[in-house]
From TrEMBL:
Catalytically driven reaction(s): tRNA(His) + L-histidine + ATP = L-histidyl-tRNA(His) + AMP + diphosphate + H(+)
Family from the record: Belongs to the class-II aminoacyl-tRNA synthetase family.
One GO MF term: histidine-tRNA ligase activity
Alphabetic keyword roster: Aminoacyl-tRNA synthetase, ATP-binding, Cytoplasm, Ligase, Nucleotide-binding, Protein biosynthesis
Subunit structure and binding partners: Homodimer.
Keyword Protein biosynthesis: yes
Entry superkingdom: Bacteria
Identification of the protein by name: Histidine--tRNA ligase
Record localization: Cytoplasm
Gene Ontology CC terms: cytoplasm
Origin species: Chryseobacterium shigense
A Pfam family it matches: tRNA-synt_His
Gene3D superfamilies cross-referenced by the UniProt entry: Anticodon-binding domain (3.40.50.800), Bira Bifunctional Protein, Domain 2 (3.30.930.10)
GO biological process: histidyl-tRNA aminoacylation
Length: 449
């Protein structure tokens, strides 16, 4: 049987693992600088914990886990015969792989709220799974790097998360633009167009604007039984100016009779103004009125980050979710969070050649194997290097020197060390810098530094 990978998954080589760690270390450092504490949750949750939190489309992308044992024997025969998957799923599966890190986090907060100090700030870096169609930058298994704050309604949390995004991407040297909107503004738009009962359908279609264009969005709205008259009232959405504050002023006029819409404008205006007061360049922040992020749990600010110089989807996103823990029986715990898409960040950095040399793990010294007493002395010296935190290894066989040279070059090892009979006798070490092509002999003391 020819080995193969499951679609939407990848193996990671030594260089890829090292580069991913480089990104994670920068994010982790910034999370902790901003006061977030680490948390990890299980890879799978009860199916009931996940379903109903991501909208209709999100629920379809949850990877369900078959129950153990003779799961088929407990299925209702009529449901089986009619292939009614809606009724079959709860009969054959009660667990599922994590779809994101936010809902498991909300479940954790609901279970532990009596022990937590609020506002509670946590970061989480773990893999998630989605039964999505694999494509460039989109995988079925991928890492999310989240930072969330729960227990505070203050809009200063939004301002702080904007700062966290900008500092982290600045440290990674990725030029980005943060697109912002507010779900209350979207609710106001639904009121203005007379489609309040179709809010979810409206936001799901609008969220696809980047992928399917205006015509595609209009077509989907019509398919979802939203009238042409309502669509015409929303025509201005597709003709926004580049001035965020001017667009917000236009909305204030249209939302004269929408309390929730005006509230959304007020909140977004505060976040934008405070960010500008802190020195954020307006070019880094965009009020994107068509940004919807198709997750049902967002209630206020929503964010999406895009790399300026690479054609790829969002490399980060998030928003406010003031009611998420209510579904777990715990009320009045507002929250807001953002996520960094590790895999997409990696692809952007690779395309822009932003990884520094130190982001790759390389062995510093390879000791040539001469056999006999020389091997024992080489191992002793290797132990001393390792105690100093310097990576070193011995070629395992007493092979021809050409073969040992080839091994070092293919593995990207910087230096090949010769500790032969002459060196042992004189208390010296000979080594060749394989990158510069220079060879030198130094005393043992000088070599160990």
């Amino acid at each position: 049987m020819k080995p193969s990978l499951a679609k939407g998954t990848r193996d990671f080589t030594a260089q890829e693992v090292s580069r991913r760690k480089y990104i994670i270390n920068i994010l982790q450092k910034n999370f902790e600088l901003f006061g977030f504490q680490p948390l990890e949750t299980p890879s799978f949750e009860n199916l009931s914990t996940l379903t109903g939190k991501y909208g209709e489309e999100g629920d379809r992308l949850i990877f369900k886990i078959l129950n153990s044992g003779e799961y088929a024997s407990k299925v209702n025969q009529e449901d089986w015969d009619h292939k009614n998957h809606q009724k079959l799923i709860p009969q054959i599966s009660d667990k599922a792989l994590r779809y994101d890190l936010t809902v498991p986090f909300a479940r954790f907060v609901a279970m532990n709220h009596g022990k937590l100090t609020f506002p509670y700030k946590r970061y989480q870096i773990q893999p998630v799974w989605r039964a999505d169609r694999p494509q460039k930058g989109r995988f079925r298994e991928f890492y999310q790097c989240d930072a969330d704050v729960v227990g505070s309604e203050s809009l200063l949390q939004e301002v702080d998360l904007v700062q966290l995004y900008l500092k982290s991407f600045s440290d990674l040297r990725i030029p980005v633009t943060i697109h912002m909107n507010n779900r209350k503004i979207l609710s106001g738009l639904a009121e203005y167009a007379g489609i309040t009962d179709k809010l979810i359908e409206f936001t799901v279609a609008l969220d696809k604007l980047d992928k399917i264009g205006k015509e595609g969005v209009v077509k989907e709205l019509l398919e979802r039984e939203i009238s042409q008259e309502s669509i015409d009232k929303l025509e201005f959405l597709f003709n926004q100016s580049d001035d965020a504050l001017e667009n917000l002023l236009q909305l204030k006029e249209k939302f004269a009779d929408s309390e929730i819409g005006l509230k959304g404008v007020e909140e977004l205006e505060f976040v934008l103004t405070q960010s500008l007061n802190l020195g954020v360049d307006m070019q880094n922040l965009v009020f994107n009125i068509t940004l919807a992020r198709g997750l049902d749990y967002y209630t206020g600010a929503i964010f999406e980050v895009k790399a300026d110089e690479v054609a790829m989807g969002s490399i980060g996103g998030g928003g406010r979710y003031d009611n998420l823990t209510e579904v777990f029986g715990v009320k009045n715990i507002p929250g807001i969070g953002i996520s960094f898409g590790l895999d997409r960040v990696y692809l952007v950095m690779e395309e822009l050649d932003l990884f520094p040399e130190e982001a790759s793990t390389k062995v510093e010294y390879l000791f040539a194997n001469f056999g006999g007493e020389e091997t024992v002395e080489a191992l002793r010296l290797i132990m001393q290097l390792r105690e100093k935190g310097i990576s070193a290894e011995l070629y395992p066989e007493n092979a021809k020197l050409n073969k040992q040279f080839t091994y070092a070059e293919k593995k990207g090892i910087k230096n090949l060390v010769f500790l032969g009979e002459e060196e042992i006798k004189n208390g010296t070490v000979t080594f060749k810098d394989l990158e510069a092509g220079e060879q030198k002999t130094v005393s043992l003391e000088e070599f160990l530094g």
